[in-house]
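Need Spermidine/putrescine ABC transporter ATP-binding protein's 3D structure for a figure. Predict it.
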Amino acid sequence: MSKIKMLQLSKQYDKQKDNVIHDFNLEIKDKEFIVFVGPSGCGKSTTLRMIAGLESISGGELWMDGELVNDIPPKDRDMAMVFQNYALFPHLTVFDNIAFGLKIRKVKRDIIKEKVEKTAEILELTSYLKRKPKELSGGQRQRVALGRAIVRDANLFLMDEPLSNLDAKLRVQMREEIINLHKRLGTTTIYVTHDQTEAMTMASRIVVLKDGHVQQIGTPKEIYNHPENMFVASFIGAPAMNFFKGKITTDQLTFSNGDRLGALPAVIDKQGEAVIGIRPEDIVLSNKETGIPLQVDFIEMLGSDLYVYGKLHGDSLVVRLRPDYEIETGETIYIEFAQHKFHLFDPVTEQSLLHREELKK
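Structure prediction for Spermidine/putrescine ABC transporter ATP-binding protein:
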């Protein structure tokens, strides 16, 4: 069992400078798969290293299973870490790499053999146990790094961008393997990535970070459907959400110039200027009579999707369509918005103007 509670966690490297982590609050339940996601430099790996004990905690409290662990050394935190660069010993075989932590703890040789062989079977590494890391592919090396964590029977797995060194096809395969591994072992896992696709496909809950501040915590579905601010709305989802300037009247949305856009998606306790968000997949083709004209600047054909780029009242817009549409650069198409899919944000604070609980009814 592993339950974790972070209360007002902060990190400061230089007392003359601002914190790199600000008031991080999170409660993690047993067996959850939590993903920290955000751009480079947002503090996600630093937070993970504080949990691991590899970085000191400047402020706040870190609790594990009811015990305050701020000053507990890493070896006594009952967790295993998987690093981005695998961190394998090149002179040791796969067997000895996986067994290394157990040998350090002076576990009996027959128990080590049993644990390593069982772990190798789970990860389909049995036939590679006598090989050295240089004889393995990137995916196999990453499985060895996972094996070293699994064999520990730790209460907590910490994974710091473990797939970033793999090619696209291998990343998809390893994502699936890690998800299946989590289902099989049920070990509480905290996973760090800058890849929002990994976050959306792997997490039971996502923590979105920016500049050391938590922006939003929620399930992938909550984060995607009800982003709390413009940063989350733009970071989660590919292509990113479209934004353009508009106005809110009593029960209507309009463009900045007053042209009618549609009905409000919910009751809004604000009038006046707003930033309107719409995801590319929530825009559909229409006709000249009822649609909004969009001149096509360029297109991207990605096999399963067709991305059409243009400008709407001076703001860039991307539309995600089926690949069978015949659209050419330079032509004018006509579009409509799925009105219940509008997102509305305050132009100053960039916070959502929609109340999530209202939208879920």
